[in-house]
């Protein structure tokens, strides 16, 4: 990866850390003052987002290091491990939110003090979260970074959860205080859903599950390549933004080494042109008649 891309990933990750620090402190202060479980749950959510943003910042710094003797496939899976850790952090958030919300609903202690600061902190959070989510998603898609994509999911989750909390505050302002705890449970359900999607993807990559879309693209290229007799043992694995592909092709027995090599080189170029940052290894075998 070039220096500009590395810098862009690091800057967007570092900016997210700063945003998470600000939001965590702001929500915590207002949540304590008002006693709103919805805002306090958002503060905890942002605190774990801060940890996740820090992990992401570390991951994007390490993942772009070139392959070495001990890591011959590079350091790309650091990003996938980062995404998995963020999943666990999100689930911890859910456990705390659900426990507190259910406890308040059972005890009946749902009264909160709604002030102008309650609305300011939630609206500020929504604006910042939308901005950060878009910036992270743009860079994540551009550079195929799962760590940045996970961070973008965190901030986009915050947008929806903040909207739920805002609804709870509006209801509480009309004396429906139970809405705050229900809103907190709504936050937890949103986070669980996002965590499931994020965790499943991270685990799939860490366990070298074949990326279906990428595998399909390569298979289509090979099926349409008439210069080979057949192919087999097609293997595809991902590590961060890097894709590693191995396959065996069979060529006509009378075909010379140079011509066979030229065919394998063309296959490699076609796959790489279709799938960026793809490393291809083609083994050539003569077709036995």
- CATH architectural label of the largest domain: Up-down Bundle
Per CATH, the superfamily of the largest domain is Cation efflux protein transmembrane domain
Largest sheet: 3 strands, mixed
Number of strands: 3
Tell the overall outline: elongated
Helix content: over 70%
What's the number of helices? Answer: 8
Mean pLDDT: 80
CATH class of the largest domain: Mainly Alpha
Core attributes:
3 strands; Alpha-Beta Plaits; 289 residues; 71% helix; elongated; Alpha-lytic protease prodomain-like; mainly alpha; three-stranded mixed beta sheet; 2 domains; 8 helices; 11% strand
Describe the structure.
By secondary structure, the chain is mainly alpha-helical. The chain has 2 domains: 204 residues, Cation efflux protein transmembrane domain (Alpha-lytic protease prodomain-like), CATH 1.20.1510; 76 residues, Alpha-Beta Plaits (2-Layer Sandwich). The protein contains 8 helices and 3 strands. The protein has a 3-stranded mixed sheet. Helix 8 links the parallel strand 2 and strand 3. Helix 1 runs antiparallel to helix 4.
Q: What's this, in brief?
A:
This protein is 71% helix and 11% strand. With 289 residues, the protein is mainly alpha-helical.
Topology:
Layout lengths: L2 H32 L2 H27 L13 H31 L8 H28 L2 H28 L4 H29 L5 H12 L6 E10 L2 E11 L4 H18 L3 E10 L2
